[in-house]
Amino acid sequence: MIPNINPRIMREAMKRFGIKQKEIRATQVVIKTPEKNIVINEPQVFKVDMVGQETFQISGKIKEESLEPEINEEDIKTVMQQANVDEEKAKEAIINSKGDLAAAILSLKEG
């Protein structure tokens, strides 16, 4: 909250302004975006209701995770050989299949 303010006084002021706050016990919060996941470990989560508008306040240890699969040269070579395609098409198929080599090979053979 605000430093150097008595928590009791703060609660009373929030109540006067119609602000309700409730702590939510959570072990992890994950925010999923199209490019990455934002993972918040050991979170402190508060649900705040301010005149009918609900918001969440979250703090904790933040870590970002990329959604693109890690692709190694051996995987690329395997897909290239099995689907008889060039390196660029093999990489694209692996990314589109989220790292599933069998699915990448099948998609290239079918399409």
Radius of gyration: 24 Å
Sequence of secondary-structure elements: HEEEEHHH
> What's the tally of helices?
4
Strand content of the residues, in percent?
A: 35-45%
Assembly status: single chain
For the largest beta-sheet, the strand count, sense and barrel status come to: 4 strands, antiparallel
Domain count: 2
CATH topology of the largest domain: Ubiquitin Ligase Nedd4, Chain: W
Helix content: 25-40%
* Shape label: rod-shaped
What is the mean pLDDT?
91
CATH architecture of the largest domain: Single Sheet
Description:
Helices cover 37% and strands 36% of the residues. The chain is an alpha+beta fold and 111 residues long. It has two domains: 7-66, Ubiquitin Ligase Nedd4, Chain: W, CATH 2.20.70.30; 73-110. Strands 1, 2, 3 and 4 form a four-stranded antiparallel sheet that branches. Helix 2 crosses helix 3 (87-96) and helix 3 (87-96) packs across helix 4. The chain starts with 6 loop residues before the first helix and ends with a helix. The mean pLDDT is 91.
